[in-house]
Amino acid sequence: MRHLFTRxxxxxxxxxxxxxxxxxxxxxPVTLTSLGIGAIIGTGIFVLTGIAAHDKAGPALxxxxxxxxxxxxxAALCYAEFASMVPVAGSAYTYAYATLGEFMxxxxxxxxxxxxxxxxxTVAHGxxxxxxxxxxxxxxxxxxxxxxAPFDFDPGTGSFIATGAVADVxxxxxxxxxxxxxxxxxxESAGFNTAMVAVKLLVVLFVIGAGILFIDPANWEPFxxxxxxxxxxxxxxVAGRTGPGGEPLGMLAGAAIIxxxxxxxxxxxxxSEEAKNPRRDVPIGIIASLILCTILYVAxxxxxxxxxxxxxxxxxxxxxxxxxxxxxxxxxxxxAAGAITGMTSVLLVMMLSxxxxxxxxxxxxxxxxxxxxxxxPRFRTPWKSTILTGAFVALLAAFLPLRVLAELVNIGTLLAxxxxxxxxxxxxxxxxxxxxxxxxxxxxxxxxxxMALCLMLMFSLPAENWLxxxxxxxxxxxxxxxxxxxHSVMARLRGDKSKR
Length: 500
Description:
The chain is mostly helical. The protein has one domain (2-16, 27-147, 166-499): Amino acid/polyamine transporter I (Up-down Bundle), CATH 1.20.1740.10. The protein is 65% helix and 4% strand. The chain has helices at 10-15, 29-40, 43-57, 61-85, 92-99, 102-137, 169-184, 186-211, 251-258, 278-307, 318-325, 329-363, 369-372, 383-399, 402-430, 445-459, 463-487, 489-499; strands at 151-154, 159-162, 231-233, 236-239, 241-242, 248-249.
């Protein structure tokens, strides 16, 4: 059993960056910050604000964003320290391997697969509805059979209902188009993303500037209609109100759902191997993108809930629909176009990140290297795993509803953040000699607070999310013990040493 907790030497990680399988170093601090903003601002601000305010928190969602943002700040500081120490692909998976051992690395790597794939599917779903909202301004409509997932969750009854649709076809189309762009190359993908981020920020600033003129302070009353709590323990509410399905309601419950909006800053660390100066640029990209996006989130939420009463917010396209309800059709068109652009950039970054986690796991022998570790000889991208990611995301986006996708991805990401924060505590004690160009401040306070806040948000999610997480991890355990443990590079190294 002790072999399950064998740590991968940092020197070995750095050596793996050399040779024919390394990725191109083409990303600077501005591009990395842009990638972070591209990943963060998207479905969270353009879609989930409607669900979270309507179903969970009301106008108090502004405070929910601050709570989630605070949890992310502590986790981001821990991520930044590791990214400066270990500037290779793999993100939290690589950090866990170097500090907590192979078994915990596999768990977090498998968890990251869930995070990036389900996040991408959620974004594709949101993109589809804003695209349909955009078309509706011109009188065009996607046929109902092809417009959404075949079922949805009704929070009023706490049960699933049939929608009468077959699949969300626009979500499939955008996913496949992004896959083609990603196979092409990281330089082209990053440039494409930077252009979309610029458009997206202009639209967000327009929403804030124009929306202020239509705020009615009466819409903020009551400010916290569902209460200030919403804390639960494995689905059993211990503080606050519950909904018809037994799910927790309140400001903390809203923070647990809206946490999805911050998923993306950690994706910056997956591109450490492609950064020009990763020890400096990656921490800058992580922290700068997180701070900027938190400010924008709170401002947009204040405008949105001030323009429209929280219980009248549209679930699928709340921001553009708010301008429709204000009688500004031209603004609805502009916001819908900006949302489409914004969510395209998020989808790009999320689907850019997952194959690089696969690449790191394949290098370690935990996944078949001939497929997941294959780097295209011309484009220098992990092209096979990128195509697999695109197909998997397209299936999820086509057949699963937004509410299921959003809650499923949150719990997996929160678990990853908890492990990274714990890893900082471990490596500070076990390897104090390692060079740390960026050091997380106030250790052990920072990682402990990161773990505490992320666990609090995990416990504020509905019970079925824990069940889905355990099922996913169980599948991962089967793969690890059936393949990964037997083909692990570290296992072979241990065997060679024992023979000598």
